[in-house]
Amino acid sequence: MRTITRSYDTYDAARRVVDDLEAAGFPATDISLIGRHASTDDSNAGEGAGIGATLGGAAGLLAGLGLLAIPGIGPVVAAGWLASTAAGAAAGGVTGGVIGAFTSAGEDEPSANYYAETVRRGGSVVSVKADEDKAPAAEAIMDGAAPIDRDARLADYRKEGWSRFDDRGEPYRPLI
């Protein structure tokens, strides 16, 4: 079993990837989504019970979407096993909760920091657990949806002085 993770600039792009993975036969239980959506900026994470119906779909992973407050990121829409791990860490006040969620999913620490920072800055992350024989199909679906170029994005972050995700920092608010 491999975990394949990609980041996307928008929640809508990530949502389409989840839909495509489910349509290709990947079980919703093997897919996770954590991301920022415009509705999260004005929401209270405690009011997320119905967000799955609004932002998600009628079945599968997206029907289970809810709002989650992650330290250093703020409110996000989240569903799946990765979201459950992050929620447990956030509820327990565990330092590095979102980093721990990504590393427990098999990501190395630099990748976990990158994915957490991407979500903090408004992006979304999709992870899928796939058997080795199905991993190429998952990668094709995820890569076909124009994920963020990790190396280019990391270079941009580093130009700004970023070195790692800080869960004690304020959620990112882009300049308008």
Automatic annotation (TrEMBL):
- The protein in question is named General stress protein 17M-like domain-containing protein
Classify the source by domain of life. Bacteria
Pfam families according to UniProt: YflT (PF11181)
InterPro entries per the record? GSP17M-like_dom, Low_temp-induced_all0457
Q: Which residues are in the General stress protein 17M-like domain?
A: 6-62
Task: Give the taxonomic lineage as stored in the record.
Answer: Bacteria, Pseudomonadati, Pseudomonadota, Alphaproteobacteria, Hyphomicrobiales
